[in-house]
Automatic annotation (TrEMBL):
Protein name: SDR family NAD(P)-dependent oxidoreductase
Top-level lineage group: Bacteria
Gene3D superfamilies: NAD(P)-binding Rossmann-like Domain (3.40.50.720)
The family this protein is said to belong to: Belongs to the short-chain dehydrogenases/reductases (SDR) family.
Keywords attached to this entry: Oxidoreductase
Cited InterPro entries: NAD(P)-bd_dom_sf, SDR_fam
Region feature (Disordered): 255-278
Amino acid sequence: MSSKWTDTDVPDQSGRVAIVTGSNTGLGFDTARVLAEHGAKVVLAVRDVEKGLAAATRIRDAASAADVSVQALDLGSLESVRAAAAELKAAYPRIDLLINNAGVMYPATRTVTEDGFETQFGTNHLGHFALTGLLLENLLPVPGSRVVTVSSIGHRIIAKIHFDDLQWEKKYNRVAAYGQSKLSNLMFTYVLQRRLAAKGENTIAVAAHPGLSDTELMRHMPGFLVPAVSLVAQSAAKGALPTLRAATDPSVTGGQYYGPDGLGEASGNPKVVGSSNQSHDVQIQERLWSVSEQLTGVTYPI
């Protein structure tokens, strides 16, 4: 295999079921498209069903044999997460891939989810934490099954877990709040992998990040940053490669983190990268897991 891994390196996915959150646009769309082109049965788990149906049509236009369906899922609503998980579990007794891709980035003002969580933490972390816990029983029996969670370079930027103010009620900083949510994604992956390995389960947990990618997530970025970021940002299709490698490369092992190989991990082809020292703090990881169980009401079957 070439050292420069591309989507042509994705192995045959025939017979595999992949659920991709936030897949009507951007990184999620390209992740879903490539998986479908390689034979996977792909479920677009999206908040806007109409946009999801349009995305499914675009994928079928690119690959006429693609098996794509749409599932309503609003990660900002635990009621929606539970309903979607129940429907997915019934429809797909076997799940090979759960790709936690959907995200919210840098909303200018503090907003909250339906359940009262700060939007970035509630959507990016808690929604995916709940969804994964509710679907895990359908992944555990499947050899080679994986949970892939998309983090960000932002997990390093003024990022920490603010246990004294997880919902940013005292003072809102959109960059720090995003950093907290993306750091949470990594900590979630590391704890989940540790628990899966301890039980000798088939399933592994892996993380990825897209570098700087030109997607709709950039719409909330401070205006003065957009031209500079646009100059160095790679396409969504290129940004999806770390996720695709984490999801499909046979050499992947649990707990790895994939990102671009270029300068500052901003762009390039996917490889194993490191995460911040803070992300590996087991005490904080376990505390975050416990708090996440309490906030979502979801406990894991491992």
